[in-house]
């Protein structure tokens, strides 16, 4: 239920070309710190948009592969160990921070992100349509919440990731994510403390 089909970029668009550049860089064995830097002459918002969608796809896949181990019983609270608890809040059903199980939180999170990235007013895909003024704020919130997925997976389910033989993939994805959010200061450093 938490797995979503990949959001794709339309071939022939500028974002598709940026996505191809990012993917080629990742597969070339380059230093991930260098890969996340904004290519010369490119729009910062386009670069962030491409990465937010790509991270959503990758992290959703990571969680989807190990979600059978993350149950209401094993994870009754969305947390990152004993010290960190994450509560859900949105602008509709949960107006106040609410304690949820990890699977419920993940489901709410993936639905919420999918709704945002499919909203043309927030993530415009047509050439010449500007990003809204609050675009980077929205991306910061998305990336902060996606970081919490890494926290939960690493602290509560990494043994399952190892048993599946997926730790190299998860570690590379996390490293790419981490360098990207640090490069553009997109997640508050206090949020990063659990890892």
UniProtKB/TrEMBL annotation:
Q: Which UniProt keywords apply?
A: Kinase, Metal-binding, Transferase, Zinc
Which is one GO molecular function term here?
Answer: kinase activity
- Highest taxon of the lineage: Eukaryota
Question: Keyword DNA-binding, does the record have it?
Answer: no
Indicate yes or no for the key word Transferase: yes
* Residues that hold Zn(2+) according to the record: 70, 75, 152, 157
For this protein, the record's PANTHER family field holds: MPS ONE BINDER KINASE ACTIVATOR-LIKE MOB
User: What protein name does the entry list?
Assistant: MOB kinase activator 3C
What organism is the protein native to?
Buceros rhinoceros silvestris
Please spell out the taxonomic lineage of the organism that makes this protein. Eukaryota, Metazoa, Chordata, Craniata, Vertebrata
């Amino acid at each position: 239920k938490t797995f979503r089909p990949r959001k794709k970029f339309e071939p022939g668009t500028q974002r598709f070309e940026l996505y191809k550049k990012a993917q080629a860089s990742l597969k070339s064995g380059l230093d991930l710190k260098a890969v996340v830097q904004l290519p010369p002459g490119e729009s910062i918002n386009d670069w962030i948009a491409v990465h937010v969608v790509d991270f959503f796809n990758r992290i959703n896949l990571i969680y989807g592969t190990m979600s059978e181990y993350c149950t209401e019983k094993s994870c009754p609270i969305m947390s990152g160990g004993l010290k960190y608890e994450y509560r859900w809040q949105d602008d509709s059903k949960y107006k106040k921070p609410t304690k949820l199980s990890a699977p419920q939180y993940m489901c709410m999170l993936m639905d919420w992100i999918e709704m945002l990235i499919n909203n043309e007013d927030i993530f415009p895909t047509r050439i010449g349509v500007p990003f809204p003024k609050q675009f980077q704020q929205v991306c910061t919130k998305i990336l902060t919440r996606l970081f919490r997925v890494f926290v939960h997976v690493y602290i509560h389910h990494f043994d399952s990731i190892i048993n599946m033989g997926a730790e190299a993939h998860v570690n590379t994805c996390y490293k790419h994510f981490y360098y990207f959010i640090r490069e553009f200061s997109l997640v508050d450093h206090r949020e990063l403390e659990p890892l």
